[in-house]
Design brief:
Length: 380
Amino acid sequence: MIHRFSRFRHLFVRLVALLTLLTAVSVPSSEALASPPSSAVHPAAASPWMQICVHLRHLRPRLKCRSPRSSTVEAQAQAPLAKLLTTITQYSVPTSNSGPVSIVQYPSGDLWFTENNTDKVATVTTGGTFTEYATPTSNSFPGEIAVGPDGNLWFTEPGVNKIGRITTGGTITEYSLPTSDANPWGIAAGADGNMWFTESNVNKIGKITTSGTVGTITEYTVPTTDTYPIYITGGPDGNLWFTEAYTGVIGKITTGGTITEYAVPASGSSPIGITTGPDGLLWFTDGYGYIGKLTTAAVFTVYAIPGTLPYPWGITSGPGGELWFTDPGVDTVNSITTSGTVTPYSLPTSPSNNLGITTGSDGNLWFAENNLNKITSLIP
């Protein structure tokens, strides 16, 4: 996308390093209004996980921002202590090279996910049956997706600077953001009945109404500059909590728009994914190789992940009182207890670039394997 590519050039100047990561997300040259053909696959460009990886390399020079062509041997060698998953089922997405990124459980039982490379939002049953829906605007590059309080699903479209809404019947409506080149990425439902989202390129948190005058957008500027807010979640206190990947900070925003920032007490921190855990605390992944948790009073505990150069990304509460997170850096899916014990599991095919993860209605973990074009189920 233009705005992500612009940010990537900025990082090149700052870090004097350009590397190819696990997968590619596309750069649109315009906001074409025609729907893309079902087989459309966009050219390679910078993605959020690549940008953050490059950002971290000045602190972790040995961190591998791997391309899809990286060898299986290399990827597996980075996680020598991981167990091999045997209770796993991989389902191929019907559209080739779709680049699945985010996945969420819908209350009725199906799972919904975004296809970042091919401008689609899709659903899959726990039995592996897919249905795909093309976004009205081409080069939308759907990012994160979340269930809204209105019963619809809401997703970010960083390629065209919009927020999308899709009904369970597949009808999509798009809403343009007031600020251009915002790069909306993370999205979550708030306790106020609105959807809240991050605007990574312009250092803002946005809110969009889901009832009354649907689609009204309000934006709030993060106090610290150049933070790259990326993921957001509803907290147990009724506020929204978000990660600031470039500054090592967890942010809190009230439904009235007041923002407070809390520094993660760990060297080189780059928080990414965030969720509310089964213990009522906020849990987050950190690209520097940590999993962290904090109370709503901002008391932190940080756990270092074992292994060589981990790069954790998505995180979700599991069915057994633990949390699970993906690690595209070493191609593992990992459980962590609320006391901090991590158990890694190697994936059967590498490089996977496993990103979004959620717990399904069947009690299994479901995650997106971006490089492999698969949605995968794991029995914990």
